[in-house]
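Lecture 7 notes: from sequence to structure.
We start with the chain below.
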Amino acid sequence: MKAMRARPVVVSCVLAGMCCAWWTASLGAPDTPVDPITFDDIASRAGVDLVVRNSATPNKHQIETMIAGVAVFDYNNDGRPDIYFVNGAGIPGLEKTGPGFYNALYRNNSDGTFTNVTAQAGVPGAGYGMGVAAGDYDNDGHVDLFLPGLNRNFLYRNRGDGTFEDATKRAGLEGLDPKRGKLWAIAAGWFDYDNDGLLDLFVVNYCVWKPEQEPYCGDMQAGYRTYCHPKHYKALPNNLYRNNGDGTFTDVSEASGIAAHLGKGMGVAFADYDQDGDLDVFVANDTEPNFLFRNEGAGKFVEIGMRAGVAYNNDGRAVSSMGADFRDLDNDGREDLFVAALANETFPLFRPRLLQRHDVSEPGRPPHAACQRLEQRHLRFQQRRLEGSVCRRRRRAGQHRAVLQPQVPPAEPAAGQHGQRRVRRLRQAGWAGPPTAGAPPRRGFRRLRRRWQGGRRGHAPQ
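Predicted structure tokens for the same chain:
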């Protein structure tokens, strides 16, 4: 996508700076004049001449809008940051048919210029690339590279002599799912989720896509075609790989609970948001609720994006989340979360408040009263997607703006107050108690039950 991928990164940084300025002002910082921040394009002068090629076609393939990633890291341990760019491939073959599609590694010359050392280092890549994650996975003191891609993933092990070797197959990181085949991997990150001193790998997957099955979006009769909305593609689970310490990895996506949640991931960020000593994982989903995987220890994760208040923005909408980063913006010792989205959407900035998070990018916009009552009184229904289903229907109708923040549910009344049979059936459906202890469910709540899960009455007791 050439500059198309680089620009969002720059925009994100600029907007992050704007948010920091707003945050400082909101905390009562003195109103002093600040010189404007300006940037100059020095790419050609620095010798960074790569053109990222997405192989755009009139067929408007979804993958054309997604490339490509970049990593800034010191590959030769000379104390100067080098740059690695990921590139695309031809369509529909999805192979790098020439040097124009190769990835590129630029060595820092320490004089403001860079030299392309891709061939010498042996890192041209293969297939239709998407992203890159840099980390020393084997603890040998040299930074390695993992490249998530559409049709193949790559693990480049840094030999320490200025060259890399392909260690993908030996490490077990091809990204092949036994049911779905190769997943469309779009981003990745290194982190130590089990505190064993070894970097583990989290791979973000986007959606199910095949070039021969690209849907037609636009006006077919008029011959106008555009890129399709993500809703036209099926979601995918993400992958978590545990580092075995011997150069190999074990796929623990299922065992850890990560694979139980399907999304359309675009970015990932790590932080110990609840300060329990274990790193947690935030996944930015495109037009889907974001994920926050809380690390429970013992290799287990629980998805709590809705409960933590980071699944949606302040409007109660799932934005086109592209990337995310944890940073302590106000120096209170707790990580804040910034999410980059698309134009004409909010760029949510979440500030922690106890175990909840609140989108402060649009201050002064309270949750809709009806959904707030539902959240406060029926936490267990919310966890079983009743609340989410109802509030999504209201959002489509433009009836509310909500940040969903569950509260502690009321005590459950004794069974005799409503009849043992009725309470037993409600419990089986996930009921946490009546709106007010000692009173039967209100008529409005009965209507919500009937609308639960697409309005099929058989899914809730009558």
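Points to note: The longest helix spans residues 3-26. The CA atoms of residues 208 and 234 lie 5 Å apart.
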